[in-house]
Amino acid sequence: MGKQSKYLKSIIDANKNKNLAVFVGSGISKSADTNEIKLPTWNDLIEALKQDLNLKNETDYLKIAELYYLAFGEYNYKNKIKDFFPENIEPSSVHKEIFEINPQIIITTNWDDLLEKTIEEYGYFYDVIKSDNDLVKSQSQNKLIKMHGDFTTYNIVFKESDYINYSINFPLIENYIKSILSTHVVLFIGYSYNDINLKQIINWIQNHSTARPPAYLTIFYGNQIQEDYLKSFGINSLNLNCHSEDNAVYSSSMYKLLNDIKTQKYFKNYENDDQIIEYLLNRIIHLNELDALMLKHISVSITNCRFIYDGDSRPILFFLDEYISDDIDLEVRKIYNKFIEILKKIDENKVEVSVNMLQIFTILSKARIKGIVISKEGSNKPAMYIPFSEYIENENDMTKYMNFQYEASEKYEMTPISAYNDYNSLKIKDSFYKTEYLIKIYTKQRKFVKLFIQIFNRNILLRYLQSNMYFFEKKYLELESYDLKNKFDSLPVKYKILIEPIFNYLIFDEFFQINFTVDQRLEKSKKNKAIVENGGFYWNSEPLEDRTKHLNLLHFYFKNGLMIDNYNEFISLNKKYVFIALNEFSNDNDVKLERVELYSCIKFFRKDELKKAFQDFKLLGKNFKSIIIKQEDIKWIIDSSLENIIEFLIIDGLIYEQYRQYFINTLSLLSHVKLNEEQLQLVISKVSKLLEKGKNTIDIYNSINNFIGLQYYKHEVSLHRESVIDLIELLINKLITKKINPQEFDAIINSRIYNLFNVANSGRKKYSNF
Question: 49 or 473, which is more confident?
């Protein structure tokens, strides 16, 4: 990277970290000139004053202004200067672009109101500071400081005594600007080497510590002697390469520089492979702190990209080229085209994969992205892509997160996984204790992303403890939740940038936006369903995209350990994805569901909601459809989910209302799937274990009854004689040994499980163990 590119990168990084101050000189005001209206230069002002004073050989600008003031008085002096500044002049695109880069501090030595007009016209949020009193009253972090005054307050700084007495007239502003010079990266725009205002600022810099961030002055073209002079004061020269002092050329070059800062372009030449890779890495490196990412994190950070969905619910990143998009940027697209050429060389084993490239692959894979398109062959051919799996190891299997198994952890195992497992096992006190410990550790280690996740989790756990005081100590009532927003606002800017990708989810802003988008998709799927029900047909290419985004959402919350699954916003979102999937199969004889929908049906629906959903989609009643599930997913439900849910119910009994709901939903799903005899026997054996050892309820018996009835009568799957007899004997034994609770007694006596007896009777299965 060349010297000029390094300077620009430093400015961009400072702006990203909210540590950039922009000083605006008179050259920027000149960008607003038109053929009819022009603003004066310093020479224009001084020559007019000299003519009135009849001075010919005086060259000291400040002295000339002072002499005019003494000769003609304050009133004539101020009116003389103000007459040079037309009120009807409008800001230029350069003025707007200054605010578009969104620096927190803009300081100007100009007297005109072009920057204020820009604020008013485009609605930027800045406090305008024209005096010490304004500075005292300012509450916004964003400030426009008119350090040399303003015509509306008649406190302009121009003559010699104004500069001499600046510390007396503007003590607070002077100290504030000096502190900015000591703590911020400074960009001077609109100043020349010999600008008297720049010399004043250089003098301030000279009298302060050398341990300060760098400063940069934009120049038309290089002048080594002048550059060396400024360098001695810690000011670097950022060359615009205008090669002309024409105002239009200067304004165009300045606009491009500001636009480069806004769009974070700091390579002047993109020919070098390392520079291109570094450019892309710098656009996503701030995401690396998270353990999992949403697809939106990638698309917003990279821009000019989309995702392709090719069949396995893991997307492929596709850089846009000729396609029109809202974020179109031809310069960025040129860089991406060169990046793809590098990927092609890697794919052809012509170059090795660099460390930075591997880091790009690793970060992208956190959003479950499996590769990057290197050649899009056409609409009838699949895209060729470079798969990350050949270069990095990344765990994207969701099975272990969906099987309702939360590994037991020791009470003093202080890890996020341990706290998360305790939460899901409803060991809330243990989870809270571990979360409190993790907050202290991450605060000390300054791991702010993980810290905010644990603060969020602590708030959730505390609300649970405070709302269930029947089970927990009253000491939790004395504890207070953290104010996440205040905590975020108090952070240094560089940490805010790291945390922002997760923070918007923690305060639910992002979930509201996702819900809005999914609502639109749900409405579209309902219309498609209506078309089919009215005898029509439609072609839909989006179900895979919906499923991929659904998995991406769950992956994000699983891997980051967010204890968010009991929030209505999150529950609602998962339900909507299920309804979209159900709607999209309206034109099929049966409903095909993948594991992500099955998990969501078990986890996020109440039993009555799931029953209603099945009725609405003709999964209940006469001539109802069946649910088609892959054999591997049936095995997952029976061997993992059902097994683990039953284990929780046996160990913890009636306390775990949510696990009882999971069990009922699981059996409800399996009721609508045609199992083979072996699978049916396996389910019956697990159910028998629950009936024998669990503290069961009427609704558990009802769900077992429905399952047996549908498998036997609807799907015509035979139950083994031994299994039926064993179940009946188990129930009789519970009755005669009185190892039964009132709800179970009611269920057995009042034939809540009548399908079991009907099956036994229809198969001439006799019970003989009297």
Answer: 49
